[in-house]
Amino acid sequence: MLITDDKLLVESAEKNNSLFKVPVCSIMSGGNASNALSELDHKTSENKIGEIVNLSQKLNSLIWDKLNSGASTTDILPIYKDVCKLAVLSGLEIDKAKRAYDNVNVGAELTALRKKYNAPAPIFFQEIDEAYRNGEKQYTFYNTTMDYIYKAVKLFHFRKGKAKVKDYEPISRIFGNKTTSDNATNYRHRDKIIEICDEYKARLSKLYMALRSADEKEREVIYERIQDEKVERDHKVSRWLTSINVMLFVIRHYEKNSPSDWRIYAPLINTPLFQKEMLAYPVPEFLS
């Protein structure tokens, strides 16, 4: 039996006005599950969880490549539904050690989906794919996080010793590292943003410390407080982040004083200005 839509309950974006809800499986187990170690070992040896995860990653790469290239959420929902089916299949494969699912042909599901999405694999698959080493498969670059990370990591020559290094690329370089104005207002806005970030960093640190000794109910309240504090912080930062010049001044401040603490950039990354500027600038040369 192939999984059909009536066998897969997905809280879809169309119904809930939100993308990427958790898929829920409604497939009942069928067949006789055996507790014999020999049969369990056999089922484990035939487990297709690795194939499912890899195909799911390929489909997710397709989804984000389309979204990052201007497609609407409606355009990618058919692919997302197939990702949900793969999520269900992975759950079935994991449960095979204790339940039988003879009514689902996992191999047939995977074959059907591979034919449906007969596109080159993302380039980062080269590291995990035996077919790449044999020259039997084609790969392409997708506009997704994993492929960007892969291209960046490939610049490091880990196996050739520590003599090979890659210079640190500051975030400010992405925006050209040049400002068009350095008037007093820009510096005043920069200082105000840094003041806000320092204040909320201290407040959030206290909340995270409180989590260590909190019980389950208290943690729920603290997590809500943390989320509220971040939203409030980001809103205040956004009000003072009035131009690309101000943003560069703030980024340079952090690059000079605490470049290794990536968390300090969160208030900037979440602002509309930062996201707009990131989309406006081309991919840095060292990643192209």
Secondary structure layout plus pairing:
Blueprint: E1 8-10, H1 13-16, E2 23-25, H2 37-45, H3 49-68, H4 73-95, H5 106-116, E3 121-122, H6 130-133, E4 139-140, H7 145-153, H8 171-174, H9 184-211, H10 216-240, H11 244-257, H12 266-269, H13 272-280
Parallel strand pairs: 3-4
Antiparallel strand pairs: 1-2
Helix pairs in contact: 3-4, 9-10, 9-11
Provide mean pLDDT, rounded: 77
Q: Given the C-alpha coordinates, what overall shape results? A: globular
Total E-strand runs: 4
Query: What is the percentage of strand-forming residues?
Result: under 5%
What level of helicity do the residues show?
Answer: 55-70%
| Low-confidence blocks of residues | 1-17
How are the strands ordered across the major sheet? 1-2
Order of helices and strands: EHEHHHHEHEHHHHHHH
Distance between the termini: 45 Å
Number of helices: 13
| Gyration radius, in Å | 24 Å
What does this 3D model show about the protein?
The chain is mainly alpha-helical. It contains 13 helices and four strands. Helix 3 packs antiparallel against helix 4, helix 9 (184-211) runs antiparallel to helix 10 and helix 9 packs across helix 11. The radius of gyration is 24 Å and the shape is globular. The model is unreliable at 1-17 (pLDDT under 50).
What's this entry about, in short?
The protein is mainly α and 288 residues long. Helices cover 57% and strands 3% of the residues. It has helices at residues 13-16, 37-45, 49-68, 73-95, 106-116, 130-133, 145-153, 171-174, 184-211, 216-240, 244-257, 266-269, 272-280, and strands at residues 8-10, 23-25, 121-122, 139-140.
